[in-house]
Amino acid sequence: MLLEFSVSNYKSFVEEVVFKMTPTAKIHDLEYSLLKSQVGKKSIDALSSAIIYGPNASGKTNLIGAMEVFKSIVMRGHIRNVESNDGVPNIAKNQLELIPNIKSDKDIPVKFRIKFIKDNEVIEYFLGINLGKFLDIKAERKIYNEKLVISGKMIFDRNTLLEIGEVKSISKYLVKEFNSKASETLSKSNLNKQELFLTSMFKAVYSNTLANSIIEWFEKDLVIIYSSDKLHTKPIFGESKKNKNIYISDSLNSAMKEFGLTGNKLVYSQEDGKEPEPLSILEIENGKNIGISSDIFESFGSIRFMNIFPLIFSALRKGQTVIIDEFDASIHPMALMSLVNVFHNDEINKENAQLVFNTHNPIFLNRNLFRRDEIKFVERDEDTSESRHYSLADFGTSGPSGVRNTADYMKNYFISQYGAIRNIDFSDVFMKALEKASEEITNEDETE
């Protein structure tokens, strides 16, 4: 369960921005939708969802991209580039020289921090990396700082030197025959400036169990879809095997019928060595059925929902945090609102799953759908090109700029009361372009 993520000096984010998935004090909207977790004697509440608003090029996608880059670094355990970028929408996660702020004239580290709950522990992990300036492929990369805190206890803190903290607090996770002095000596003498201590020496000589638990959360519990139009899921849940290469998912078919399936049924056909192909089954003459590729028969919105539904189902079943860029593209708002409400329903969302997505659709600016602390904004300063992030709850509840839960969020957003919106008028652009085009045609005719 995600509690917090912060980043600085990443693309359009210069100063630290903190993305919170914890409820704001004194905000009591939709309290039934809060997730509750017990860690030791402490009860922790978290938001079940969050929605991010902002104009085009404001930095909404950069925020999601920063999470994906951080995840990819933890998964590979180092800050070197990955050569292959085939089919990767977020190339910055493989080519790290693309992520420092473009206008920075100094070698400022990129900093990440994440806080989450895993296996009844509150885990906080910090990582700062020196990558040089933007596009500086020759810069000497090194880890600037790295820190691990488990349930409020500092376990290690790596800066110029490595400091080992309260490892006794994680005694149940330590390797067999653990030797504090030997482990510390070995760790300090084997630090690699481009490799994470968490996934290398800490894992080897302190706690393979704890390191693997953290890595597993990044790998399996933090699901980030950087470009949802490229999402393709497989029928991996609740399917019944009709024959050796046809799969039918009753859950998906029920959802697709609610959404609007053109065919009579959806099945997946899989030949040896090939990816499963969705087929829409149609009933033709004499009661016979025929299968047509869903990619050419169903609407684009249906195809997108077909790929999103298994992702949402998996999140609810496993308690994952799902973060999706452009989640709502081509899908009707009523279907999206129903998906959001599923995460708010504690009778369905029993594993504390979370849904985060960005959007341009104002229909979600609704106090009956989202809490004020779940409605987030990203806006970009036109002079500095720097992005900043805040939530509707940050306005407070009193004073001329305060936001009460009785306010008309949508109306106030469109009159720029909350920022993160841009007035756009293309009239002059088209007028001048058309005039220029007309002049060019006239000149061509005169030349002829």
Task: Summarize the entry for a quick read.
The protein is an alpha+beta fold and 448 residues long. It has helices at 60-76, 180-189, 201-206, 208-221, 250-259, 294-297, 300-318, 333-344, 409-414, 427-447, and strands at 2-8, 17-20, 35-39, 42-46, 49-53, 110-118, 121-130, 142-150, 153-158, 162-164, 222-225, 239-243, 246-249, 265-269, 277-283, 289-293, 321-324, 354-358, 375-380, 387-391. The chain folds into 2 domains: 1-227 and 325-448, 3-Layer(aba) Sandwich (Rossmann fold), CATH 3.40.50; 234-302, no CATH class.
Helix share bin: 25-40%
Uncertain ranges: none
User: Could you say how many structural domains there are in total?
Assistant: 2
Sheet/helix structural class? alpha+beta
Total DSSP E strands? 20
Strand order of the largest sheet: 2-1-6-7-8-9-10
Cα end-to-end separation = 71 Å
Largest sheet: 7 strands, antiparallel
If you average the pLDDT, what whole number results? 89
Query: How much beta, percentage-wise?
Result: 25-35%
CATH class value of the largest domain: Alpha Beta
From the alpha-carbon coordinates, what is the Rg to the nearest angstrom?
A: 25 Å
- Backbone shape: globular
Helix and strand pattern:
EEEEEHEEEEEHHHEEEHEEEHHEHEEEHH
